[in-house]
Design goal:
Length: 308
């Protein structure tokens, strides 16, 4: 699979895998872009792109793939061109086709070639980031890069309205459970971090990348002068409750003679939160060492109040 486009025997193998394999598939509607070609329609809500279950696919003969019992969100794609994305041997693939209505539901035909997904390289200039360090048994040091979670506003009071409306019922169930656990364990502080945690656990990862299992930075969901919360959609979450980690927090400073401030601390995950039936995990970490002047700096940044 060295070529970007798969044809012939490779295409037939991939198509059979799409129908028979237990593979995650997403469908995204396409739209015209000022006569210059097609583009993926930007998500107007959490509905797009739509993730489909493998058991919904069946062979319609030849290159036809049947979609049985399609969800309501996909039925509206009938008569439209769509982008089909999935993994084959951990490689992200896609093709564009037309979704059609048939007696058994929906169907689409696979084109002559199937393409490999290329991840767009996006460089971010974060105002805040973090790095976690820990030592392995062989004395090697491992570090994890951490960046602000997309859609999370750090150093601001979390609000329930930041959770998508369709996820709020599930998020409320999580919150009630976590609050009850916190009352017993007394390890959640003021509990503000539970809102972004519930939001994160109820969101779904639908984007297909060039390779499945590729290493991603940990997401930063919340930070203040007492704790920092990390999240990951990786099933092999590396942080363990009770283990101590070295931590570097990096702040870009817009004012003053210094452009950047690094804060060094240690932290311990006081609680690990996991999504029900999903791979998303959050680590609610409390600082175990933090210099007084750094604590004051983070407090003032997080609360917008002077620390006296």
């Amino acid at each position: 699979m060295e070529n970007n486009n798969l044809t012939g025997i490779e295409r037939e193998l991939v198509l059979r895998y799409l129908i028979d394999g237990n593979v995650p598939v997403t469908v995204t509607p396409m739209e015209k872009e000022d006569g210059s070609g097609e583009t993926v329609k930007p998500p107007s809500s959490a509905v797009f792109p739509v993730a489909l279950k493998s058991e919904q696919f069946a062979s319609g003969g030849g290159d036809i793939v049947l979609l049985k019992n399609p969800p309501q969100s996909v039925i509206g794609f009938a008569g439209k061109r769509v982008r089909i994305e999935f993994y084959f041997n951990s490689v992200g693939l896609f093709f564009i086709t037309e979704m059609r209505s048939v007696k058994s539901g929906l169907a689409f035909a696979a084109p002559e070639s199937i393409c490999r997904i290329k991840d767009a390289e996006v460089k971010h200039d974060y105002d805040f980031s973090a790095t976690i360090y820990y030592s392995c048994s062989n004395k090697a040091t491992v570090n994890f890069d951490c960046v602000p979670c997309e859609g999370c506003e750090l150093f601001a009071r979390p609000v329930w309205a930041s959770i998508a409306l369709e996820n709020q019922k599930a998020a409320k169930a999580y919150l009630e459970r976590f609050v009850a656990e916190a009352k017993k364990e007394k390890n959640a502080g003021n509990g503000l971090q539970l809102i972004p945690i519930c939001r994160y656990l109820t969101e779904r990862e639908t984007k297909i990348k060039s390779f499945s299992g590729s290493v991603k930075p940990l997401d930063i969901l919340y930070v203040d002068h007492e704790r920092i919360v990390f999240g990951s959609a990786d099933e092999n979450f590396q942080l363990s409750r009770g283990a101590e980690y070295a931590l570097k927090l990096s702040f870009s400073l817009k004012k003053g003679p210094v452009a950047k401030r690094d804060v060094f601390a240690t932290c311990v995950p006081a609680k690990i939160y996991r999504a029900d039936g999903g791979s998303r995990t959050c680590a609610d970490c409390v600082y175990t060492s933090l210099q007084e002047e750094d604590l004051r700096f983070i407090y003032e940044k997080a609360t917008k109040n002077l620390c006296v």
